Amino acid sequence: MYKIFKILFFLFFGLVYFYQLNLFAEEKIRIGLLVPMTGKDKDLGQEIVKSTRFALKDINNKNFEIHLKDTNSNPNQTVKSAIEFKEMGVTIVIGPVFYKSLEYLDEVQEITFLSLTNKNLDLPKNVISAGVNATSQLNTIKKFIEINEIKKTIFLIPDFDYENEVRKAIKQSKIKTSQQYVYNTEPTKLTAQIEKITNYKTRKQNLKDEIKRVENSDLIDKDKQLEKLKKIYTIGNVNFDSVIISDFDESLKSVITSLLYTDVSPKKKHIITFNQWFDESLLKEKSIQPIYYPSINKKNLDNFRIEFQKEFNISPNYLSLLSYDLVGLIYYLSIKDKLENANTLFRKKNSFKGKIGVFDIENNKINHRLNFYKVENGRLKEIF
């Protein structure tokens, strides 16, 4: 009788065990995707949707699902869609894309949002910035400065709305700068400020004084010295070895041109800037080269573009690559742990290697380990 009871006991719990395994195997992993599907940014939203579909195809797990809702690039529509996600039981969402859409998301504390924005300042507690933020960029720039033993670095920050974001990143990265300057991007004011920063008028006057001294001298090689002096623009060095410019596009080019005007050559001083996303127009501006900047892994980006083009017959932007990687990141974390309490997943120290590069996760923050590039003689070169 005891043997029969023992057999029935193990048979019962064996059936329960296999039933639980079957339930677990069929358990759906559901994440949300919150992007603009209507309004002026709908094309961007559709591209991000394609990239997440592409990621799902590569993951190839039928239990991993993405549910789509619209933001209309509007904070009111965004929070409405977020509440709908909450009612569905979704606890983690990729999106929104834009910083302005985050305004009311602290009303939906049950969900963790992985926003594609690169801004970290004044985020709701349940929003994690997944974009390539200023801290990630300065961590990479700091590495370059240390490798090259650059002693004195100044920082130029445009008078834009992201000034405080940059200042916060300077503190977080602990990058050493001898001076920080905020400049006006209006050309006349910019040139005047750069003249002051580089002590241009004094250096120009030094040259005039030296020419006058040589002219009034009895030097044997006076003519030769005067000929040399006429080939230079200033006398005296500037008080820095490198300059970091947190600017982009034409405004960045204006700053470097102003430095050239004040006789600060990129060939003599390191001109470093923020992520330029491989702006090809910089390759054509040989007079302002070399320029250095951090960015994502370009080889991976190029390979992704080729694959994406084959799949959808359009060329993706970098946000498509980022959203592709975020799907992979969430899948990776879901394997390690449950997604019910998604917020705890991003408190733990983790690293994830995606196509964009390596994500470092800790204390509800995502930073990226970036590559570092140099634009010189019309070509792009990877430094590390």
SSE arrangement:
Layout: H1 2-26, E1 29-35, H2 42-59, E2 64-70, H3 75-88, E3 92-94, E4 112-115, E5 127-129, H4 134-147, E6 153-158, H5 163-173, E7 179-183, H6 187-197, H7 200-215, H8 222-229, E8 242-245, H9 249-261, E9 270-273, H10 281-284, E10 291-295, H11 298-312, H12 318-336, H13 342-345, E11 350-353, E12 358-362, E13 365-369, E14 371-376, E15 379-382
Parallel strand pairs: 1-2, 1-3, 3-4, 4-5, 6-7, 6-8, 8-9
Antiparallel strand pairs: 10-14, 11-12, 12-13, 14-15
Helix pairs in contact: 2-12, 4-5, 6-9, 7-8
Describe this structure in words.
With 384 residues, this protein is of the alpha/beta class. It has 2 domains: 27-132 and 298-367, Response regulator (Rossmann fold, 3-Layer(aba) Sandwich); 135-295 and 372-382, Rossmann fold. It has helices at residues 2-26, 42-59, 75-88, 134-147, 163-173, 187-197, 200-215, 222-229, 249-261, 281-284, 298-312, 318-336, 342-345; strands at residues 29-35, 64-70, 92-94, 112-115, 127-129, 153-158, 179-183, 242-245, 270-273, 291-295, 350-353, 358-362, 365-369, 371-376, 379-382. The strands form 4 sheets. It has a 5-stranded parallel β-sheet with strand order 2-1-3-4-5. It has a 4-stranded parallel β-sheet with strand order 7-6-8-9, covered by helices on one side. It has a 3-stranded antiparallel β-sheet with strand order 10-14-15, covered by helices on one side. Strand 6 (153-158), helix 5 and strand 7 form a beta-alpha-beta unit. The longest helix is centred in the first third of the chain and has 25 residues, at 2-26. It is elongated.
